[in-house]
Amino acid sequence: MQVAFYLVCVERSTYHSHRTLVYTSGYNLEYALVGNIAFDSDVALDEFLYSTIACFNDVDFAFERNLKDAFDYAHAFAIAFNEAVELVIAPKLKHVLEKLKTQLPEIDSNPERFREWWQTKGKVWGKQLRYLLIKYRNIGYDWEFNEQQKELLEKYYDVNKLLVDCLNSAADVSPIVRQKIEDTLLLLAIADIEKVHNYHD
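Above: the chain sequence. Below: its structure as tokens.
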């Protein structure tokens, strides 16, 4: 299941340069690959933390363009972040995230104050969050891929999605074999993602 999560993280990163706020094939892939995160608390935590980053990008995009539903994205961001903080068990990470949480003004009590805070301090806050996620969870990297790299990644996702579907439908695969396949997939995924990221750099 971890390989699915990391693939989805890369998939999301290719769509959060935000030319428009729309649901993409990445969300369909996410639901297909990470539909059972509730059974893995560690992956569930990373999912909520990464969702916080994704929602942060949505809010940033919405406020920059003065979208009418900007505060809807702000609420989604707040919910994802609160859920993530609740799931954290590690004392150090929980402490720094709770400290970061105290810096966020309330959305409903004073929406305009929240907007002003976001426009003046939001980007710095987001950088701090990314730093903490990279430091403590090794997620939140700001990958930037060109169109050719995105195409290569999407082909890779398709192959992995097919393999995951096969694993999920194969009743005669033992847990040990399944885990070995997933662990191997994760190692291959990391290696291939690094290759794509360095392609033509």
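Residues 14-34 have pLDDT under 50 and may be disordered.
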